[in-house]
Amino acid sequence: MNWLLVVAGAVVGAPLRHLTDRAVQARHDSVFPWGTFVVNVTGCLILGLLTGAASAGAAGAHLQLLLGTGLCGALTTYSTFSYETLRLTETGAGLYAAANVVANLVAGLGAAFAGAAIAQAVWA
Q: What is the pLDDT of residues 74-110, one digit of tens each?
């Protein structure tokens, strides 16, 4: 049964990732991979909220499988982040590559911590 929760979350997360990436990228005329950045930071925020809710006893194992493993696993993408950073470097956009790494790490961690803090404030 657990694998069905993961699959159900992924069925939503994968197309959501693709559609969000395309929608965000279409609005920016830049070599910076804004679409991947947005989905990764959003996934970090969701995981932070979920982690905070779980530690407060407001989210059980099934919700963690559905949202954490399934949805966020399919929504976020470390491989695309890595590939886009490599491509930026190969095309001579080293500053954009460095900014991509720093922005994803700082904003992702910030979003995860913010999500956990919000969840603690709501459910503690």
A: 999 999 999 999 999 999 999 999 999 999 999 999 9
SS3 60: coil
Specify whether the CB–CB gap between 50 and 64 falls below 8 A. Answer: yes
CA atoms within 13 A on the CB side of 10: 12
Residue 110 CB coordination number (10 Å): 14
Distance CA 92, CA 97 (A): 9
Q: What is the pTM of this model?
A: 0.95
64, two tokens: 């963690």
Q: Are 74 and 18 in contact (CB under 8 A)?
A: no
**What's the CA gap between 27 and 77, in Å, rounded?**
20
